[in-house]
Design a protein that fits this description.
Helix content: 40-55%
Number of helices: 17
Shape: elongated
CATH architecture of the largest domain: 3-Layer(aba) Sandwich
Strand order of the largest sheet: 1-2-6-5-4-3-7-8-9
Largest sheet: 9 strands, mixed
Order of helices and strands: HHHHHHEHEEHEHEHEHEHEHEHHEHHEE
Number of domains: 3
Strand content: 5-15%
C-alpha cells in the first residue's frame, strides 16, 4: 500500500482501531486496505449509511447487515483512549512505521499493537528464531549461541516469548546487547506464560525491543490464536531459524508459513532418536529448510555483512530466597534433580519451577537426564 501520511489524525486512527476490534462481519484486512486506498480514509466507511456502503462495491449484503449491527456497540474514540492510557502504540497498515515486510504477506494484521519500542530502523535485518517449548540441553545451548551471535552482529531477533527455546532466544539477545521483538497470541498488555513476567517487563520497558500483537489489549491467549501468531513472526523476518521442533511443534507451523511467504528457512539438525529433532530433521530432508550449524551460516547465506560487534556487557543477576539457596548448592559439577530435591527439601514441582527460572536467567544449565550445574561464566 502506498503511504503519503506521516501521521494519522486521531479520528482516522480510531477508525482503524474500530475495524481491528470488529469481528464477525467478514471484513478482512485486505478489504479494509482496499477501502482505504479507494477513499484515502476509513472515516466515511465507518460512519457510512447502508447506501454509502453499497456504493463502494466492496461489501456483500450480508457483510453490510452484520457490520451495521455490530458497529453501534463499538466506540472508536474509547478504543483509542484505552490504548493510549496503557502506553500502547498502534500502527495501522497505512502507517509509515508499519513493518514493510509484514505488509507483503497474504493476510497482514489490520493494526499492529506495540508495547515497548518498535525497532523500525533494524527491520531490514530481522530474523525469526523459534523452537520447541521442551528443549534438550543441546537445543537450549544452540538457541542461546544463535541468538547471541545474531544480536552481536546487529540482527533484530524475532520470536514468540513462549517457554523454552523462545525464552532463551529473547534473553540471550538482551544479554548480548541486542534488540528483540516478541510476537504474542494475546493483547500486548497480557503476559503469557506468567513465568515470563521478568522477560516481559524487560521488553515492554522499550530498552530492548517490544512486545507486539494483532489483538486489541485485553484479549486473552487462546490455543487457536497461536498458529495465527506464527505468521507474524515469519512475516516480520527475512529468514526463520528453527532450533529444535517435535513432530507437531508450533515451530513447524512458523517454518511452513515462512516457506509459503518465500522466506529463507534454516534448521539445526539433531539426533535421529531425539523427539525434539524430528521436526527439524524433517524440514531438512524435505528441502524446506537449509541445514545450518551456526549463526554464521545464516548470515553468510543471506549475504549479510556483519556490523561492528556490540561492546561486551557483564550481566549481573541478583538472586533471592529459594533460587539463591539452590544456586549456592550447585557447582560446575552436575547434580541430579533427585539429589537436589533431597538436599533442599523443596517439593519436586516447586524445585522444577525454581530451576527453570534460574535456567532462564542464564545462571544454571540443565543437562540430559535431569542433571543441573552452574552455567560457565
Amino acid at each position: 500500500m502506498e503511504n503519503t501520511l506521516d501521521q494519522l489524525s486521531d479520528e482516522e486512527l480510531s477508525c482503524w482501531l474500530a475495524f481491528s476490534y470488529l469481528s464477525g462481519a467478514g471484513i478482512g484486512t485486505r478489504r479494509i486496505a482496499a477501502l482505504y486506498e479507494k477513499l484515502n480514509s476509513l472515516i466515511p466507511v465507518w460512519e457510512g449509511t447502508r447506501k454509502v456502503l453499497e456504493s463502494l462495491s466492496l461489501f456483500t449484503p450480508d457483510m453490510i447487515d452484520k457490520f451495521l449491527q455490530k458497529r453501534d456497540a463499538i466506540d472508536p474514540e474509547k478504543l483509542l483512549k484505552e490504548v493510549r492510557d496503557m502506553g500502547i502504540e498502534a500502527y495501522p497498515l497505512c502507517h509509515p512505521d508499519y513493518p514493510y515486510r509484514l505488509k507483503q504477506i497474504h493476510d497482514p494484521p489490520c493494526v499492529l499493537y506495540v508495547k515497548g519500542k518498535l525497532p523500525t530502523d533494524t527491520f531490514d535485518h530481522a530474523i525469526g528464531v523459534v523452537g520447541t517449548r521442551r528443549p534438550t540441553s543441546y537445543g537450549s545451548r544452540i538457541a542461546k549461541e544463535v541468538a547471541a551471535g545474531l544480536a552481536s552482529n546487529g540482527v533484530l531477533v524475532v520470536s514468540g516469548m513462549a517457554i523454552g527455546i523462545d525464552s532463551y532466544v529473547h534473553r540471550a539477545t538482551i544479554d548480548a546487547g541486542g534488540q528483540t521483538v516478541a510476537v504474542v497470541a494475546s493483547g500486548v498488555d497480557q503476559c503469557y506464560p506468567s513465568s515470563n513476567k521478568p522477560l516481559y517487563e524487560m521488553l515492554v520497558s522499550g530498552q530492548h525491543g517490544a512486545v507486539v500483537s494483532e489483538y486489541f489489549p485485553g484479549v486473552k491467549p487462546e490455543s487457536w490464536r497461536f498458529p495465527a501468531r506464527n505468521r507474524i513472526i515469519s512475516g516480520l523476518s527475512q529468514a526463520v531459524v528453527v532450533i529444535e521442533a517435535g513432530e507437531k511443534s508450533g515451530a513447524l507451523i512458523t517454518a511452513r508459513m515462512a516457506f509459503e511467504q518465500s522466506r529463507d528457512v534454516f534448521s539445526f539438525p539433531g539426533r535421529i532418536d531425539s523427539p525434539a529433532s524430528v521436526g527439524t530433521n524433517s524440514l531438512i530432508s524435505k528441502n524446506m529448510a537449509k541445514l545450518t550449524v551456526s549463526y554464521e551460516d545464516v548470515l553468510k547465506e543471506l549475504n549479510w555483512v556483519s556490523t561492528p560487534k556490540l561492546s561486551d556487557k557483564v550481566q549481573v543477576v541478583e538472586l533471592f530466597g529459594r533460587e539463591k539457596d539452590i544456586y549456592e548448592l550447585l557447582s560446575n559439577e552436575p547434580m541430579h534433580f533427585d539429589v537436589l530435591c533431597e538436599r533442599t527439601g523443596i517439593a519436586p514441582g516447586e524445585l522444577s519451577a525454581s530451576l527453570t527460572m534460574l535456567e532462564l536467567a542464564g545462571v544454571v544449565n540443565r543437562q540430559p537426564g535431569d542433571w543441573y550445574a552452574r552455567e560457565h561464566q
